[in-house]
Amino acid sequence: MYFILIGLMTACNSGAQTIPTIKVTKLNENGEYNPYREIENPEKVKKVVNILDEIQLNWRDNKVSWSEVPQYQFTINHMKEQETKKDEKYEILFSIDRVSIYLFKRPDKYTIMSDKEAETLVEIITGETLAEPK
């Protein structure tokens, strides 16, 4: 009986779905990106994924040469339930007045955000508000 129970537990665990995580890096004074934080909270990850899904039609081709370097990079690391989906890399560049953000989807797309979704995205990814940097 004991062996059957262990076998059932193993079978259940092997099919368990896991959720994506988000790894964030931050630009330092030397122009290099350092690990900054990892977001594993399922609700926060889902919010970020939903925001990114909502802006799918707003991506523009990135044919512009940017003089500024994005302050943050983040990667959505997909897990088992989305094996066919590759990890997605994004970058956040704040506007000078920090009213809006430029969100880059690498390698060649960007959009400009300045609404509630931008605030939510910035708070989850960076841990700061859109208006006030740390």
Walk me through what this model shows.
The protein has a seven-stranded antiparallel β-sheet with strand order 2-1-4-5-6-7-3, with helices on one face. It is α+β, with helices and mostly antiparallel strands. A hairpin with a 6-residue loop joins β5 and β6. It is built from three helices and seven strands, in the order αββαβββββα. Helix content is 28%, strand content 29%. α2 packs across α3. The protein has a single domain, classed as Immunoglobulin-like. The longest helix has 13 residues.
Quick recap of the structure?
This protein has 134 residues and is of the alpha+beta class. It has one domain: Immunoglobulin-like (Sandwich). Helices cover 28% and strands 29% of the residues.
Quickly list its features:
134 residues, alpha+beta, Immunoglobulin-like, 7-stranded antiparallel beta sheet, 3 helices, disordered N terminus
Tally of individual helices? 3
By DSSP, the count of extended strands is 7
- Identify the overall geometry: globular
Question: Largest sheet, described in full?
Answer: 7 strands, antiparallel
Q: End-to-end span in angstroms?
A: 57 Å
CATH topology-level fold name: Immunoglobulin-like
* Helix-residue proportion: 25-40%
Structural class based on helices, strands and sheet pairing = alpha+beta
The CATH architecture term is Sandwich
CATH class descriptor name: Mainly Beta
Question: What is the topology, as strand order, of the major beta sheet?
Answer: 2-1-4-5-6-7-3
Order of helices and strands: HEEHEEEEEH
| Beta-strand percentage range | 25-35%
Radius of gyration: 18 Å
